[in-house]
Write a structure and sequence with these properties.
Number of strands of chain A: 0
CATH superfamily of chain A: MetI-like
Number of helices of chain B: 13
Radius of gyration of chain B: 24 Å
Helix content of chain A: over 70%
Number of domains of chain A: 1
Radius of gyration of chain A: 24 Å
Number of domains of chain B: 2
CATH class of chain A: Mainly Alpha
Helix content of chain B: over 70%
Oligomer: heterodimer
Number of helices of chain A: 12
CATH architecture of chain A: Orthogonal Bundle
CATH topology of chain A: MetI-like fold
Distance between the termini of chain B: 38 Å
Order of helices and strands of chain A: HHHHHHHHHHHH
Structural class of chain A: mainly alpha
Number of strands of chain B: 2
Low-confidence stretches of chain A: none
CATH architecture of the largest domain in chain B: Orthogonal Bundle
Structural class of chain B: mainly alpha
Chain lengths: 293, 284
């Protein structure tokens, strides 16, 4: 019989092996390549070293890259605020009873399971000029021209609307699960003390929901920072650079221009920013957990 | 007071009806497009439903019977099913180890597995592409453009999620039950078969369903790491964008077909799927 810990490690080993090979090894590989100039289509297709961190030095002044990061962060913050507000209101409304509630909730879960690439297709079919009903409706009834193939501002907001359509249900259902699990005693005492609904919401519901809210923010932020599929399908990153989020920008630099070295350095910076945001939120979570103990 | 409540009810119902229309309208339009000929789609959008005998079946037969989309569909089924099976088995083993043994550093290992899910896949495209096509080489065999490559790779995001889901469930099975069985001389395999599997069955089912769904839905990695033989249905869907003069009807048909498994699951086990997707978040 194996010793107890050995059995444990044995059970864990396949998982660790796969995650090292497909997670850690690529990370170190991309870190390594990031220090070189490497373009397989160039005259000299080998790795070339031209000074320490030359790629990173270039990236700090690479406006298109920096803008793509700024765009991703702006997008994440905008969608997160809309989805949180909407999701919270919808979750609260689902606590009361009204006709057809379970039907409405079922339909609301639908976007959750649809693949991002399919969501992109659905929106493309729905909003593209010449085919989709949305540009027609907007034109005929509101006199508004929707053509995000040409209008940068519209393209960005179209992606925001698509993301809200796709992910608000996740926020709603998670917050609903959190709301349903809240203890009832504080509410009863508050009612006895004569608090009104608004006071109950701000002084009881919100503080008690903070742990769930942080987790929702965490998950949604990580997901929207890595958005690629649906944007690729809907706008392809255009027009111009209007919807070129960091993930798409890296894909284009690496697989269209074949800037392997520079693309790797971008990947590392992208990862770094994600990790920093992630880590800050995680520390907040841990700090709150400690306060409660 | 009572009328006020009725008003609130009417208001909520009205808002939710509006929301339901917003959710369903784009999907309804996609279904309409998939039933129409290119000529019918030309001009002003016609929102009236298509009658069954007027459905333009060529939108479905052209990609799936005459074209290669049945191969893509087959690849997707193989990749998603095998990945879900592999992930469920490995995650069960790993979770049992994390939950029952006092391994040094198991907290850090748990956190490290989670980071694999949070990392943006776009950052790993280049190294994975190079590793798949040139480094992990066994004679003539490379992982690039193979189903086995995708099956293994999808573990990166599915394993952490599965471990996360299963941990709560296995932690919930009292340790005393294991220990009683060990005293009776049961080995690990018997404990799994007689104790863990029956008690955690619903959780395991949800885990494998969601793993299947994530693998089925994945696009970015599949599009970069396959070229001809292992392409999955999402990559096939994206091919419609690059071609000039998109055939919208066919595209809608492919999108509809690739949505089907998700819809089936949702109708069959909606409660569990939603619980699975929101489970960890609520546990905090």
């Amino acid at each position: 019989m194996l010793s107890k810990n050995k059995t444990g490690w044995l059970l864990l080993s396949p998982t660790i092996l796969i995650l090292v090979l497909a997670g850690l090894v690529p990370f170190f590989y991309v870190l390594y390549v990031g220090f070189f100039q490497w373009n397989p289509l160039a005259v000299d297709p080998s790795l070339q070293f031209d000074g320490f961190a030359s790629n990173y030095r270039r990236l700090i002044f690479d406006e298109i890259f920096l803008e793509s990061i700024w765009r991703s962060i702006k997008f994440s913050v905008v969608t997160l605020s809309i989805e949180l507000t909407l999701g919270f209101l919808l979750a609260l409304s689902l606590l009361s009873s009204f006709p057809l509630k379970s039907f409405f909730r079922s339909v609301h879960t639908l976007p959750l399971v649809i693949a991002p690439i399919v969501v992109g297709s659905i929106f493309k079919l729905f909003t593209v000029q010449g085919l989709g009903p949305l540009p027609h409706i907007l034109k005929d009834y509101f006199g508004y021209t929707l053509n995000y193939g040409l209008n940068a501002e519209q393209a960005f907001w179209m992606i925001v609307i698509m993301d809200v359509w796709h992910w608000t249900p996740f926020v709603t259902l998670t917050l609903l699960a959190g709301l349903s699990a809240l203890p009832q005693d504080p509410y009863e005492s508050a009612k006895i003390d004569g608090a009104n609904n608004f006071q109950i919401f701000t002084y009881i519901t919100i503080p008690m929901m903070v742990p769930v809210l942080i987790v929702v923010i965490f998950i949604r932020l990580m997901d929207s920072l890595k958005i690629v599929d649906e944007v690729w399908m809907l706008t392809g990153g255009g027009p111009g650079y209007a919807t070129r989020f960091t993930g798409i920008h890296i894909w284009k630099e690496v697989f269209e221009k074949r800037y392997y070295g520079l693309g790797s350095a971008m990947s590392i910076l992208y990862l770094y920013i994600t990790i920093v945001i992630c880590w800050v939120l995680y520390s907040v979570m841990v700090a709150r957990g400690k306060n409660e103990d | 007071m009572k009328t006020k409540k009725t008003f609130a009810k009417i208001g909520t119902t009205f808002l939710w009806s509006l929301l339901t229309i917003i959710t369903l309208f784009p999907i309804y339009w996609m279904i309409l497009v998939s039933t129409r000929t290119p000529v019918e789609l030309f001009g002003k959008p016609d929102l009236s439903p298509t009658f069954f005998e007027k459905v333009h079946w060529k939108n479905f037969t052209k990609p799936f019977i005459d074209g290669i989309y049945s191969d893509y569909l087959f690849n997707s089924i193989i990749v998603a099913t095998s990945n879900a099976a592999l992930v469920t088995v490995l995650a069960l083993m790993a979770t049992y180890a994390l939950s029952r043994f006092k391994l040094p550093g198991s907290e850090s290992i748990f956190f490290w597995t989670m980071t694999n899910r949070m990392a943006p896949p776009a950052a790993f495209l280049l190294p994975l592409f190079l590793l798949f096509s040139t480094v992990f080489k066994f004679g003539d065999f490379t992982l690039f453009d193979t189903k086995i490559g995708l099956i293994l790779l999808y573990c990166v995001f599915n394993l952490p999620f599965a471990i996360w889901l299963l941990k709560g469930i296995i932690d919930g099975i009292p340790r005393e039950l294991d220990e009683a069985m060990i005293v009776d001389g049961a080995n690990l395999f018997t404990i799994f078969r007689k104790l863990i599997l029956p008690l955690a069955a619903p959780g395991i089912a949800v885990t494998s369903l969601l793993s299947f769904l994530f693998a089925w839905n994945e696009y970015l990695l599949a599009s970069t790491l396959t070229s001809v033989y292992a392409r999955t249905i999402p990559t096939g869907l994206s091919e419609f964008v690059t071609t000039t003069g998109t055939n919208w009807g066919t595209m809608a048909a492919v999108a509809l077909v690739s949505m089907l498994p998700a819809l089936l699951f949702l109708f069959a086990v909606q409660k569990h799927i939603v619980a699975g997707l929101t489970f960890g978040a609520v546990k905090g």
